[in-house]
Amino acid sequence: MVSINEDAYDVIVVGSGGGLVGAYVAAARGLRTLVIEKTDRVGGTLAYSGAGVWFPGCAPLRRAGLGDDVDDARTYLRDIVADPSREALQDAYLAAGVGLIDELEKNPWFQSFVHGPVPDYFTSAPGASPTGHTVFPMPLELAELKENAGLVRRSLPTERWGFDEGPVVSGGRALAGRALAAFLETGSGTLRLNTALENLIVEDGRVVGIEAVSEGERVRIRATRGVILAAGGFEHDRELREKHQPPLTGEWSNGVEANTGDALRAGVAVGAAIDLLDEAWFVAGLVQPDGRPVFHTGTRGGIWVNGAGERFVNESRPYDQVGHEILRRHNSTGVSHIPAHWIFDQRLMDRDSFGGPPDEPVRPEWLESGALKKADTLEELAQLIGVPFDALSRTVEEFNGYARSGVDERFHRGESVWDQMFHHIVPFAADPRQNFPAKPETEWPNPLLLPIDTAPYYVATILPADIGTKGGLKTDEHARVLRPDGQPIPGLYASGNTAAAMSGRVYPGAGTPIGSSIAFAYLAVLDIAGATD
Q1: Fewest beta carbons less than 10 Å away: which of 111, 152, 364, 528?
Q2: pLDDT for 102-113, tens place per residue?
Q3: Could you give phi then psi for residue 216, rounded to 5 degrees?
Q4: Cα radius of gyration rounded to whole Å, the chain
């Protein structure tokens, strides 16, 4: 490989997910900005997401009549995070969300964000909102991007199974496409694909550029004002996962496979402090016919049991909390919870199908691959998954009693505002392309508690997956990367999953990961541009 010296930019952004929004903010201020992306498409894990951002008090919420509730959200964060060392990060995040949305909505590419009613995840905490603080970008016709349409990363279902997405995209693909167009249209933005970060260049204690491999050549690119690391986490780095998050290895992650901790390692190499490397945005993952799990948002029926045939959690609990609970119990109880077994019956299949349309409730590949198993009796089902039949029978009998009374006395499924959202929708399950309206259920008092008593019986596999790691470089309220002594490394910033999360070990509400990515990239640009006041 040949070493090449290139002209300097004002700002270099490493990563093209949420960092692309920060790059637009920089370029819109006239800062010559370079975005480098490791792969051949922009969007990162953002492109796999619904692109919700958790921004209390922002304009779309006020337009929806929900008022300015930043103080309530601050109370909520203080309570659930319970970590005074993160309070300055929380305050910065809350202020950034309001300002960033105001700035983005001035650009026609971003149009108007809209509120999506998703309850905050800790529904009983002080300050929690039953309607949530999450706003979403508008869908986008890819043709509007013209020659750049093919640069936007495809969705996870398309990459995994080749599903046809059509000419209009939504969620993360829409936000990535809009950010790309807005960034390039400034005239101050440059995109370089197939360019992987290797090292940071430091002179006199300041980060002044990067070393990368671009199209097979080693390059050195200078940044006169700052480098923003926004390259995702280390979810697919087996060494780091095994070291910090056993028994996980990264193979079950729903993050983009290129996220292997390059930016994290580069930051550590120049003296950055790290935090929360044992954490991730955990989710329950439903194993698909290809043998890998996909993010499962919630469960409307059936039960999950561990290796002892016992139920262990409210299956409709917010996904990060469920993911944490699977790992906690697996690592502490002496009973295997990996995998967990989702058991349900024909009654539930008839009501909800298995993620497919009503005329095709389960597709052949599910049963042919063994991702979904079927049995005529519970005893046969217990044998299929290797759990004690006596224990499983007792567990089902107890649950059926709860179904008759409508009250889940052990885990309280169906009681929270979050759970009750699933009364009305069929969550993301076997077919990630679409959700189907729930059929009316009037016979049983709690729509989330149907008895398991109608043969045949089914079992699917649940694994602890994630949508990215959440530990990384320690940063301050300006997104500046810190040394172990708490002093910033001049010229170096981090956002999103490259940085340790402002929310600590909890997941406050839908859109916190993406919100953190774009909010702290925005704060980094404000600091670089000298606009922190």
Answers
A1: 364
A2: 999 999 999 899
A3: 85, 0
A4: 23
